[in-house]
Amino acid sequence: MSFVTASQVSSLAVGLLSRTLVLPMTVARIPGTDFGGGHGDTITVRVPQPGSARKQSAGSSITYDQISETPVSVEMDHLYHATRISDEALSLDLVDFGQQVTTVQVDAVGRGAEDTIADEMNGLTPNQADVDPDDLEEEILKARRALSEADVPAGDRYMAVGPGVAAALLGIDKFVRVDQSGSETALREAQVGRLYGFTFVESNSLDSERAVAYHRTGFAMANFAPVAPRGASDSAAANKDGIALRQIFQYDPTVLSDASVVSTFAGASVVDPNRVYSFTLDFA
Length: 284
Prior knowledge:
Blueprint: H1 6-20, E1 28-30, E2 42-48, E3 69-75, E4 77-86, H2 87-93, H3 97-122, E5 128-131, H4 136-149, E6 157-161, H5 163-169, E7 176-177, H6 178-181, H7 184-188, E8 191-195, E9 198-202, E10 210-215, E11 219-224, E12 234-240, E13 243-252, E14 257-270, E15 277-281
Parallel strand pairs: 1-11, 5-15, 6-9
Antiparallel strand pairs: 2-3, 4-14, 6-10, 7-8, 8-9, 10-15, 11-14, 12-13, 13-14
Helix pairs in contact: 1-3
């Protein structure tokens, strides 16, 4: 088996991430350049607040309003998966480093990054709890009305659902299933269908009975690769569509093993809870 370089592994990792992550594709992404790292490892997102037009009476002076912004803090976590590959394993056991090692590491880090969003969604207080599955379509309409009344844009509306809700959705006759539309890309992104202006995505990182309706800007996620360490023998960073990670190799002579570490910085936060609608189904 030829030795695999960090750049080769990172290129493979990008492809794996694009097939693994679901929720990050549906939320606002914060560029890594916005991260300062000097305030408790947090990023502050400035969200402009809507203004109101005024009427001018003939000949009267106009009124000047202040432009206001709401700060939203996104706390960053350093997520990683580290493993050692002994000389024996590298020489005798490994057939495909990418499949046997990198796939496991990238999957772990990718799921960890997605969980930063899922934790925010699962932590929401439901607008409606214990909804009867037979009333699911009615609840979706309530979510649509709630977002519209909160002036949420009609485009880029998503409803992220757990596996239980996704199964219940497929029982709605009006539900347009993605697998019937022939979109392979949508299937890879776990889009299960559309209804009443929502694109539905299924994520195993959500509680099975949980559904969250939101606009893309309803949640903010920050994600970027750590800088290359000066002490690593081989390292590389990869970034595609905002999904970033770093992979490093370092030989540990004390145990005669290669150390492989895949890691990323990731964090997420709800931008405005009043512009997000969440409910849970009762499958009892």
